[in-house]
Structure prediction request, 537 residues.
Amino acid sequence: GLERIALLMQGVDNMYETDEVFPVIARASELSGKQYGVDQVDDVRLRVIGDHVRSSLMLMTDGVAPGNEARGYVLRRLMRRSIRSMRLLGYAGPSIVELLDVSRSVMHDSYPDIDDQWERIRQIAEAEEKTFSRTLNSGTALFDTAAKQVRSSGGQVLSGDKAFQLHDTYGFPIDLTLEMAAEQGLSVDQDAFRALMDEQRQRAKADARAKKGGAVHTEAYQVLRAEGETPFLGYTDLSVETKVRGLIADGESVSWAPPGSTVEVVLAETPFYAEAVGQASDKGVLRTSAGDLNVLDVQRPVPGLIVHKVEVPNELAIGDAVTAVVDGFNRRGACQAHTATHVLHAALREIVGSGATQAGSFNKPGYLRFDYSSTKGLSPEVRTEIEERCNIAIRDDLEITATQMKLEEAKALGAMAMFGEKYPPIVRVVEMGGPWSRELCGGTHVQHSSQIGLLSLLGEQSVGSGARRVEALVSTDAFAHMAAERALLNELSQTLRVQPDQLGDRVQAMAAELKAAQKTIAELRMTQLQAQVAGIV
Prediction:
């Protein structure tokens, strides 16, 4: 609607010629030497570039990085189609960063976050173009070979399995394969391609459900959800007297669970936290008159419904009274790890920059991992600085508060949110140290940062194009890890007979000695070989 108003007010023929899109088209035209408005095929490619570059810029400004799933996959397709379109226009040099910069110049007044995120956007785009250039070269070779085989056999259709191989191995979107095939007068067996894609998706879904030990079908859950949500009381209570509202076994609703069976239990209300927002589920027991049922896992198979996976030692039926008791020690560990994740996020943004936005996380008692958007790894010095900043925040005993408010109010406060996540009108904002850490979060947390105890970084690595992962231990697990490292350091010091602070120099000296010895041995062997040859002659 707004774009239609813009094209009417600006007196242009279409949205591609408005002042937010056309500057990109104009620059792409200059780079490629293809004049806009002369050739219909070239115009389509230039319009694709103008639209996709702007969309890519806005997605990356919101924290998205190119990937193989969900929103990351959408961004990757947009960027790669833009790069491919520039090549089809005859320009094979790097282009995406320059075109994004043109889009930035016309968009940043309305969206000032673009300038704040620009360095990160530039790095991601540059890395993605380099990766895709290599992919395009190798994938194009495979495509050309397959296309030649089709034509030599008198055919006109590229098989679905070849299209799937290009997609699965080389990251070619199907529309790119269709475009390349059309250029050579071929079509693609899209039905076979879609069938292979569906098989892959079904395998992925089945694997994911198998890991959880649950059923694939959701009909039984939907029926129970229609009867009402499961109230979660676990923010304040770890023990609740309640009743069994539903039982599900092998994906089917049942009224009774026999001894020795494993079922999913729906309670009238629960203190158990279901796995969500990266936090592992609670552990504990359901106490009945017939005995305790160990809670193995807690999930939300459909929004609003919480199910507890349990082993039934005796029997269980709908309507039975139970006391749901959360393992307090396990919950405390989960709270420590989740709050530590927020601490790490805030420290990363403070030290690395605001572009280090969350791309995913997982935490459980004693452990956390945090994925964030970046193309560069952390140097040892920066890692040390981040670890120190986290532990300063822990030592400062920052108060943690959780407040319910309207989504618009939370955004106005600057609360961090995961891009692409759907949030209800009323959200929960977890705040620590005032504006230092303010995030939309439904997880459980400690009341003061000092209750985390300690945070120790384990390492940092790449987990894909434009994404990095940091892992850490917290609380007593962090202390145990540091104690083990100290013990190892002492053992090495005793073995090498040097002080701990001299280990680095000693190891370097030993490496140099080893290298020199290997060189001497090689020279002696050569001398010996030459002598043997001389004796034979």
